[in-house]
TrEMBL record:
Positions occupied by motif Q motif: 40-68
Protein name per Swiss-Prot or TrEMBL: ATP-dependent RNA helicase
Annotated region (Disordered), positions in chain: 1-23
MF (Gene Ontology): ATP binding; hydrolase activity; RNA binding; RNA helicase activity; translation initiation factor activity
The protein's Enzyme Commission number: 3.6.4.13
Length: 169
């Protein structure tokens, strides 16, 4: 999905103008939305065919509410802040957005994901690898308790995305 600078600028302008004068105090369970597009299916999101294959192979058939509202603006390069309970699809949302934007032909780090714990970083890496399985992307996690030289070797060989904990960077 190629995005023109005009479309991107238009989306950014819509986002910025929607942010002016917002009441940021919301009741629990309410969404603060500055981007209006909601996609009922993954097919409606304009995602790469091989990313769709990875999503469906992972067992996700229909996007959750957070995915319906978050994947497209993330793919368009907009800032996305979402908060939801466990198991609602947040990880798959931002992993899909990252994978959509990666240039698979360029084996250089194009995305960095920071997680507060080793376990979460490894979970994110696992989800990103699974969703990106048909894209031929290389993902690596840098976390404590691993051999630093091995991390250096893998990173030097080239990866598309790195997931890690702040202490390892």
């Amino acid at each position: 999905m190629a995005k023109s600078s005009e479309t991107s600028n238009s989306d950014s302008h819509q986002h910025d103008s929607n942010m002016n004068g917002l009441d940021l105090e919301k009741q629990e369970g309410e969404f603060l939305t500055t981007y209006d597009e909601i996609c009922d299916t993954f097919d409606d999101m304009g995602l790469k065919e091989n990313l769709l294959r990875g999503i469906y192979a992972y067992g996700i058939e229909k996007p959750s509410a957070i995915q319906q509202k978050g994947i497209v603006p993330f793919c368009k390069g907009l800032d996305v802040i979402q908060q939801a309970q466990s198991g609602t699809g947040k990880t798959a949302t931002f992993c899909s957005g990252i994978l959509q934007q990666l240039n698979e032909e360029l084996t250089q780090c194009q995305a960095l994901v920071l997680a507060p714990t080793r376990e979460l970083a490894q979970q994110i890496e696992k989800v990103m690898r699974a969703l990106g399985d048909h894209l031929n992307v290389k993902v690596h996690s840098c976390v404590g308790g691993t051999v630093v030289r091995e991390d250096q070797r893998i990173l030097s060989a080239g990866v598309h995305a790195v997931v890690g904990t702040p202490g390892c960077f």
